[in-house]
């Protein structure tokens, strides 16, 4: 007599929401930390926003930086059956590894500065995901970099920072690409 075998485990649909929190060593056991969220990507402007946050905003004794990175949902242009699904998963796996690596590198920088840190990889539309996660976290501030787009590009392409400024439930600081790096430089 043979025992029935369970059906093979399948991967979740490529467009399913998937959020992943990376394990980051917390420096202390803050009972009720003030949460400062920093939206990050692989751009220089994003790293400048994080640097600005570490120098000018966070208090090591009471604050925790929460890094947020949003990766896009891969959408194959055409449905070629099984092949299209494989391409979608390959793109998703690559995006996930890139996001994880970025968050680990930036979290190391935060911890090295002596600040508590969490790192969360999000997936979907950057605007909606950031606003929702900031609200869920109860962040007191969201800091993000600006790509420096002009008004026309911002209107056509949409601006993540502009959306967050108008829709987040906390103050949003957009660090300009050519702005001062510290409050003393202003």
From TrEMBL:
The UspA domain covers 34-175
Q: Which Pfam families match?
A: Usp
> Source organism's superkingdom?
Eukaryota
Name of the molecule in the record:
UspA domain-containing protein
């Amino acid at each position: 007599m043979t025992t029935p075998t369970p059906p093979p485990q399948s991967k979740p649909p490529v467009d399913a929401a998937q959020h992943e929190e990376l394990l980051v060593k917390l420096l202390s056991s803050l009972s009720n930390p003030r949460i400062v969220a920093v939206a990050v990507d692989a751009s220089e402007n994003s790293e400048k926003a994080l640097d600005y946050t570490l120098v000018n905003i966070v208090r090591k004794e009471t604050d925790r930086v929460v890094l947020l990175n949003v990766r896009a949902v891969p959408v194959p242009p055409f449905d070629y059956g099984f092949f299209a699904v494989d391409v979608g998963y390959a793109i998703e796996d690559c995006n996930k590894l890139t996001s994880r690596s970025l968050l680990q590198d930036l979290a190391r920088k935060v911890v090295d500065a002596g600040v508590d840190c969490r790192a969360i990889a999000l997936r979907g539309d950057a605007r909606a995901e950031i606003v929702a996660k900031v609200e869920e976290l109860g962040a007191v501030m969201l800091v993000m970099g600006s790509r420096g787009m002009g008004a026309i590009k911002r209107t056509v392409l949409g601006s993540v920072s502009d959306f967050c400024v108008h829709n987040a439930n906390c103050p949003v600081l957009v660090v300009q690409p050519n702005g001062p790096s510290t409050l003393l430089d202003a």
